[in-house]
Amino acid sequence: MADIRVAVAGAGGRMGRTLVGAVHRAEGMVVSAATEQADSGLIGLDAGEVAGVGKLGAALRPDLDEVLGEFDVLIDFTTPDATMHNLALCRDARCRMVIGTTGLSPGQREAVSEAAIDIALVYAPNMSVGVNLCFKLLAMAAEVMGDDVDIEIIEAHHRHKVDAPSGTALRMGEVIADTLGRKLDDVAVFGRHGHTGPRERQTIGFETIRAGDTVGEHSVWFAADGERVEISHRASNRMTFARGAVRAAQWIAGQERGQFDMQDVLGLREL
Ligand SMILES: NC(=O)C1=CN([C@@H]2O[C@H](COP(=O)(O)OP(=O)(O)OC[C@H]3O[C@@H](n4cnc5c(N)ncnc54)[C@H](OP(=O)(O)O)[C@@H]3O)[C@@H](O)[C@H]2O)C=CC1
Ligand SMILES: O=C(O)C1=N[C@H](C(=O)O)C[C@H](O)C1
């Protein structure tokens, strides 16, 4: 079987460089194209050299439309606007996508779902196996502990992160709210300050820490009187996300159309 040709969007970024390395090392896959922001000083450089894995023959281009036809799957960990631009191009060209970008607005999430009418894509705020296992554990904890506990989601990331709470924390909130029959938009409380009054049991709280080079940490408290369950995940390097994205790219190459997430890729949906 021919190698899967992968394009990496934002290949000069923290995740982009890690993804180039992960795809390069993966069996049956090649980095065939790469993009960066149009005014980036990296334009024209080789994606492999930027990622520190040696020359790969894929120069960083300023727009995905220049490399349409040169890839089978696009892996996109960039910004919401860049992802929307690439989504439209991939939809028109019928190319598959793996989207890791977080901070999408409700309208942008809707656009992802609409594009999946025509193309196959994986869209997930966290591609690590551990976090996706945690989503299952959270549903189980919410089911068992139900309305008798206070639920708080605490996340910490590096100082460069631009969206808050993290996409993972929001997805954790959605999983818990869905399990409890609550609507996250109605019960979410984002940080607290001043005279807040006592806590309302139905709320789900979000606390955000941005500090140093923290890769990504999430902890969910189910707190009752007399005991507390904590479900926590700590990523210590970005390769854990990149390896998940590579698995997603391999998996989505076998799909024709539809929106999927890492629960599908990892076979966790029916567990
Ligand atoms: N789903 C998951 O498992 C994970 C998701 N993420 C998410 O991935 C995203 C990226 O994170 P991170 O790598 O840390 O961020 P970075 O800012 O390091 O990387 C984003 C890259 O995209 C580039 N970029 C911006 N606009 C365009 C464009 N129009 N075309 C091509 N490239 C563009 C940026 O260039 P410039 O710097 O010049 O603006 C930058 O190099 C975030 O949303 C983050 O939350 C992160 C880790 C795991
Ligand atoms: O920006 C990051 O770094 C990360 N973003 C993702 C998120 O917002 O959930 C996933 C991971 O925690 C790292």
TrEMBL record:
Keywords: Amino-acid biosynthesis, Cytoplasm, Diaminopimelate biosynthesis, Lysine biosynthesis, NAD, NADP, Oxidoreductase. It is found in: Cytoplasm. Its main location: cytoplasm. InterPro entries: DapB_C (IPR022663), DapB_N (IPR000846), DapB_N_CS (IPR022664), DHDPR_bac (IPR023940), NAD(P)-bd_dom_sf (IPR036291). The active site is at residues 157, 161. Pfam families: DapB_C (PF05173), DapB_N (PF01113). It is an enzyme of class 1 (oxidoreductase). NCBIfam families: dapB. This is 4-hydroxy-tetrahydrodipicolinate reductase. It comes from Thiohalocapsa halophila. The lineage of its organism: Bacteria, Pseudomonadati, Pseudomonadota, Gammaproteobacteria, Chromatiales. The gene is dapB.
